[in-house]
Structures
1.
Amino acid sequence: MAESTDVDQLLQAFERFAVHGATKAAGKEMNGKNWAKLCRDCKVIDGKNVTCTDVDIVFTKVKAKSSRVITYEEFEKALEELASKRFKGQSKEEALQSMHKLIEGKGPTNVGITKVAKGGALDRLTDTTKYTGSHKERFDETGKGKGKSGREELVENTGYVAAYKNAGTYAEKTKAK
């Protein structure tokens, strides 16, 4: 029973890496880039026994001649090939079990992703309560931006000059006469 859950976790890891970075991928086939990422992220590549070149060679060896991707069955063959290389002192079965333990349940990591800056200067520069002059008009009382109405002076087609004190009183003045 324990072996079926291990296979399920291995299949899950395969599917996670297969769809990584590809919007149209179904998770049934894995390309060479994602295979190399799986080997890097799951520490299959150790730099001594298994290198990036070894991973590429094994990928080319197990895939179909005209294909650019590997299926889950080919993925398992590739793991068998690398297991004996990665775990030299172990038997074939033990090496394969150790290889499965490295990969099971894992998914792609996002290394090198830009994080949101958190610092005093950024907080100070983006604090809308400290804005003055025309920039202050871009935000409401809560600090939320007004959008286009905050950036542009909207034209009123009333016929009066902006900020005219007696706007709307012309009709009253002409009636009085």
2.
Amino acid sequence: MKILTVFGTRPEAIKMAPLVQMIKKDEVLECRVAVTAQHREMLDQVLRLFDIVPDSDLNIMQAGQTLFDITGRALAGLQKVLEVERPDLVLVHGDTTTTFVAALAAYYMQVPVGHVEAGLRTGDKFSPFPEEMNRRLAGALADLHFAPTAGARANLLREGVDPERVFVTGNTVIDALLATVRPGYRFKDQLLDNMDFDKYRFILMTTHRRENLGDPMREIYLALRDVLERHPDVRVLFPVHKNPAVRQVVQEVLGTSSGVHLVEPMDYEPFMNLMARCYLVLTDSGGIQEEAPSLGKPVLVLRNTTERPEAVEAGTVRLVGTSRAAVRAETDRLLNDAAHYRAMAEAVNPYGDGRAAHRIVQAVKYAFKLSGERPQEFAG
């Protein structure tokens, strides 16, 4: 059975890598890999780390590309890939434009689609934009739905998806994380390798969401500056996104702050090992809401909505929005209240146990009658 996995960004590659590796090990499955390279440099970092060589590389990224550009180039390129490969199943991941377009291309070719990390919803089609609609549209086109949690499955069932086509697997991001973080890791960057993680409590910051550009980011960074003034034992490590709109506000607000270390975007492996050494995380990222709790790191989510409510319910993350007062207050609380910090740090991660890729492979074989036993679901 030939399976074509399609992805185009770094987050997709991270989460699909354990699945690619698991499919390649299986005796009855053939794995083919196609990348759109919607993001080029960041994607390549992950391909090298997990030793994945794509069978097809569309290399669509261009400077100043729009969603229209990505959609058009990816759709045309994937038509040719599908015509050559003729797969039995196309696997897509999550909520990127590549995800939606790959599902659409497979549908046009009447090839079944499996959606990894299916069923996440905020209920607001513009938040996050365009990810919320990418995942909903991919879900509408999918034949198999690999939901990371019971909550994600419930979302799909409310939308009328056949329960027999939904498998609760856990999230493959935990598979990747557990294979990457290790004690004694040495950073190649001397700045990071020389950081005194025993003397200072480090906050790891990431921001990149379109809806946070402009004033919301300014509010977040002003709150961070307030926190540093209140806590002399705190430092900030901030891998700054390459988007010029992000960098401009970062420089204006934090460029001269002595307690802030602004660094270039990091490869996945050093970033995960850096997160493991930091005290807490402030982010508007989706994936970090899943990853950081596995490392015992509280997460403050710099957004007004999240498609990952299980983390909020479990107590591993808090949704704080973007106002200066709220971000400052919640960060202060984690730095001042040891019991509150422990409650978040020690809460159980609801997203995975490191066996999600195995469950997905078993679910595929079951769905295509290569195995007679439906895989046991992830319990959370």
3.
Amino acid sequence: MKHSIFIYILTILTSTIYAQETVNQFDNGNKRHGVWKKYFDKTKELRYEGQFEHGKEVDTFKFYTLNTNKSVLSATKVFNDINNKAQVIFLSSKGKLISKGEMNGKLYIGKWIYYHNKSASIMSTEFYNDNGKLQGEKLVFYPDGTIAEKANYKEGKLDGKSIWYAKNGTVLKEFMYENDELNGDCKYYGASGDLEAEGAYRKDVKHGIWNYYENGKLVKTKDHTKRSKNPNKQ
């Protein structure tokens, strides 16, 4: 009986030692294979850990940052078996979810969700094309979930209508973009929803005649051609 227990303990110890020795190994083709762990320079604190299958990341990788000289989980990537795509989450130093989405190598792709700093509420949603550039509609939300902003992107650049909202849902601004520049009709509204100014931009510059209103009535017109590029200045 004692002999059996000794053999059992010896087997466990041998397996443990072997497992430790097989960390950070290469296959015959000099590709990373098996469990890998890396540490921050001159420390025993983990920088990342995960598993490779003949050079390819598989399953779950964990990444860490140093916080008061201790490793804190900052991100996880769950890889699939056929390509470099992974489901990713980013975390704060306190473990709060910051964002989540999909990556292909270092590129953001598909839908990404970002969260408010002090709550679990969604702060924004956006989409990336296969080249890692913003594409389609981006939405921004107030902490209570009401819409704060809508914008559209094409190949990473603002394109089409962008709208800003007050917390009560009132439209505050409507801008038209083309190739990341203000281009087209734009409107400004007051807190009550009354139109305050309207006009057009051409290549980021106010262009032509702009109309200005008070209490819904036209009070002034002004030619803004070649004036300020700042869209927040009326």
